[in-house]
Please model this.
Amino acid sequence: MKHNPGADAKPRCPRCRLHLELCICGQAPAFGLATKAVVIMHYAEERRKSNSGRLAGLVLKNSEIFLRGLRDGTVTPVPSEKYPNPLVLFPGAGSQELNAKFLSAIPRPITLILADGNWNQAGHMIKREPLMKEAIKVHLPPGAPTRYRLRNPQEADGRICTFEALSRALGIIEGPEVERRLSEFFYLWVSRSLKMRGLSDDI
Model:
């Protein structure tokens, strides 16, 4: 993907990582949902301006983001009453489809956990992170292709980025209006990220 060398010189918002004139923080919906979202982010992702997982902290009051893999031993969450009824969003062996029938048997409120990293990093998190190991594994129903265009190559094999997955999962758990507003915010972020790179912002 073509890179604009001058883009890195401009000051950025520390939260959305966009140039200040393109900042979208003031347009972020502020949801106070019953569902708690927990993003466990690989430390390498925290430095990447294309990371979508951090957006959870902008839009969800009931959310937490933890970094995994730092040498200083930053603590990641362990099972406790603070994280009721945990579900980890990760396809694979033993994973169940997240849908209305499945949710009818799950107590509320739910803790929705997402691994934020590449496929291998996410797989290691699922095996090693205490909160993820204890959680029921779920996956999304088939859906639309990703609209995330900030990395090359784009997500393959039907995979979507962290914030897209979060939006779709919350749409199933909390309702379609939540998904609609989160998706609109995500598309705005992608569009302005592309514009910042001097690329077409038509997604």
About this structure: The chain has a mean pLDDT of 90. The longest helix spans residues 176-196. Helices lie at 43-46, 56-59, 100-103, 119-128, 130-134, 162-174, 176-196.
